[in-house]
Design goal:
Layout (H helix, E strand, L loop, with lengths): L5 E4 L14 H29 L2 E6 L12 H20 L6 E8 L31 H13 L4 E4 L4 H10 L1 H20 L3
Parallel strand pairs: 1-2, 2-3, 3-4
Helix pairs in contact: 1-2, 4-5
Organism: Ramphastos sulfuratus
InterPro entries: NAD(P)-bd_dom_sf, Sc_DH/Rdtase_CS, SDR_fam, SDR_family_member_7
Protein name: DHRS7 reductase
Length: 196
């Protein structure tokens, strides 16, 4: 193929651990994979797109890139970093209007991300991945990512309710979002500590 038309950045790992219990090397590994790995691929591919003056860079971030959540401080940080990076890169590419920067922010999706999460240390895996039936089916998420890509959306929040409503609350009524997240977060931490 003579050129690269689309780059889909979709690699990464999540996290399930309290910050106070988590070793610093876990945060380093999360940033290395989720953030630096993504911008490294983008750096190599972008030069080809600039030469052809056309292309799409689609990055699967997360709703955790626009809000915070307990037990995922490192994951949230890496996704916030991606959001900031690609929003900045988009402004650097104004001379290339045919190169699209598309940030995809899925909420909970049925996948193996939970089985592969980082915990408080690099050698430990999670014991209970929990029920995933309440999450969006993977094929539905992929369909919405493709629609977002075809329409050159700068950012797409892809989630079922009530998660999507929380995103809007976080965006437009942050004081209420903090109140709600504190209540939900406390219960989430208690469930985590009790092994649920």
């Amino acid at each position: 193929f003579p050129k690269i038309d689309v780059l889909i950045n979709n690699g990464g790992r999540s996290q399930r651990s309290l910050f106070v219990d988590t070793n610093l090397d876990v945060f380093s590994a999360i940033m290395e994979l989720n953030y630096l790995g993504t911008i490294s691929l983008t750096k190599h591919v972008l030069n080809h797109m600039i030469q052809s003056r056309k292309g799409k860079i689609v990055t699967v971030s997360s709703v955790m890139g626009i809000m915070g959540a307990p037990l995922a401080s490192g994951y949230c940080a890496s996704k916030h970093a991606l959001q900031g990076f690609f929003n900045s890169l988009r402004t650097e590419l104004t001379d290339y209007p045919e190169i699209s920067i598309i940030n995809i922010c899925p909420g909970p999706v049925q996948s193996k991300i939970i089985q592969n999460v980082f915990t408080e240390n690099l050698a430990k895996s999670i014991e209970n991945s929990g029920d995933q039936s309440h999450k969006m089916p993977t094929d539905r998420c992929v369909q919405l990512i493709l629609v977002s890509t075809a329409n050159d959306l700068k950012e797409a929040w892809i989630s079922d309710q009530p998660y999507l409503a929380v995103c809007y609350l976080w965006q437009y009524a942050p004081t209420w979002a903090w109140w709600l997240m504190n209540r939900m977060g406390k219960r989430r931490i208690e469930n985590f500590k009790s092994g649920v």
